Amino acid sequence: MKTIEDIVECFQYFDSWEDRYRYLIDLGRQLPPMPEDLRIPDNIVVGCLSQVWLVAAVEDDDTVSFVADSDSAIVRGLISLVVTAYNRKSPADIVKTDILDIFSRIGFEQHLSPNRRNGFVAMVGRVKALAMGAVHK
Description:
Helix content: 55-70%
Order of helices and strands: HHEEHHHHH
Number of strands: 2
Strand order of the largest sheet: 1-2
Shape: globular
Strand content: 5-15%
Number of helices: 7
Largest sheet: 2 strands, antiparallel
CATH architecture: Alpha-Beta Complex
């Protein structure tokens, strides 16, 4: 499985934004399927224009795993980045991970619409909230 650093490095090989978007969409296609019974209103990320579902679970080793999906190909790629960056980390590591730095290194702040960027930030906020909430259950 690729790490977030592997993905950032792959983005650096693409010269055109068309190629980067294709890679982002391909990352979204690689997300494991989300069970239909998890696609409920309680699991929707508020702040995204597209439908985004995100669920967290605490694993036996006290890390947090995430399952996510979206009805938009590009947003599904963005949620794949989020899941790759945070999956199977401790809640403390999740809170410390600066995904906006990763987002910047890929160059997305200049090439995504403000709405998609806001949705990305909403996804990250939901991940952090779920991670902290999952530990306190």
